[in-house]
Write a structure and sequence with these properties.
Shape: globular
Number of domains: 1
Number of strands: 9
Radius of gyration: 15 Å
Order of helices and strands: EHEEEEHEEEEH
CATH superfamily: HesB-like domain
Distance between the termini: 13 Å
Structural class: alpha/beta
CATH architecture: Sandwich
Largest sheet: 4 strands, mixed
Amino acid sequence: MKNKWTGITITKLAIQYIKSIIKNYDIQIIKIDIKKSGCAGFRYDFSLINYYDIKNHQKYYIYEKEKIRVYIPIKYMPIFDKTEIDLIIQNDMNKSIKFNNPKIKEFCGCGDSFYIKNTIDILPT
């Protein structure tokens, strides 16, 4: 990695929401990944998984806070660095995880996919 990893943060609202998901679904791990997708190039992929579903734990950075374990692929750490995981509450029925990432400069029209300038320098081949 070219730069030092500073980390991610999770807001209190997001922690409460993720804890409720973990409890309701009996899940051990939140996995956050990046997939090529959409008109802007990339999208976040938020998965609920169990420990045994991860085949190679050494390929992940593990962030833990308040009994929440978040797995992030090491190869995407430069993209996730300085990202805040937050919760958007539209109403009682509609809640979603939001990623506030200072590296993202452009979003597609619907806001689901994003573009990061100099992605070639950030993403592994």
